[in-house]
Design goal:
calmodulin binding; 6 strands; 33% strand; diacylglycerol binding; C2 domain-containing protein; two-stranded antiparallel sheet; Unc-13; Immunoglobulin-like; C2_domain_sf; 1 helix; alpha+beta; 145 residues
């Protein structure tokens, strides 16, 4: 997507809160979004952990949701140079509300129908991308890293 970075003072305590909103556009639903959580230090910053979210897993809605707890991990998992996920849990989690907003003129049952169609399309894209990756990895002509 884009390299969106923000430094926000968190509400201190065992459950810090940022109340930060990021808005961006994309046509590449075959990509994903990397969330990084850092602790800013006086001399250096420390990476707390990362979470990779495939865009095909993002719901469509114009409504603010309750959010979803995401596990924060220590390492990125890559395949053929592409990030596919994260591993090695840190024990930390992050509550996020991530969504694709529907067009402004979609309301009521039209919005629900559009949302259902977009979710079905995302699932189809996810399945096809997964099949392509599997096909590339199992091909005898493919050089594996």
């Amino acid at each position: 997507l884009q390299n969106v970075k923000s430094t926000t003072v968190a509400v201190k305590g065992n459950q810090p809160c940022w109340e930060q909103e990021f808005i961006f556009e994309t046509n590449r639903l075959d990509n994903g979004m990397m969330l990084e959580l850092w602790n800013k230090g006086v001399l250096w910053d420390k990476l707390i952990g990362v979470h990779y979210m495939p865009l095909t897993s993002v719901q469509y809605s114009n409504e603010t949701g309750a959010g979803k707890w995401l596990q924060i991990d220590q390492e990125l998992e890559t395949r053929n140079g592409q990030t596919i996920g994260t591993s090695r849990p840190t024990g930390h989690s992050l509550l996020v509300d991530v969504r694709f907003e529907l067009p402004f003129d979609a309301q009521g049952s039209d919005a629900e129908e559009l949302q259902a169609k977009l979710q079905a399309l995302n699932k189809l894209i996810e399945v096809n991308v997964s099949r392509m990756c599997h096909s590339l990895l199992t091909s005898p002509d493919c050089i594996h890293s």
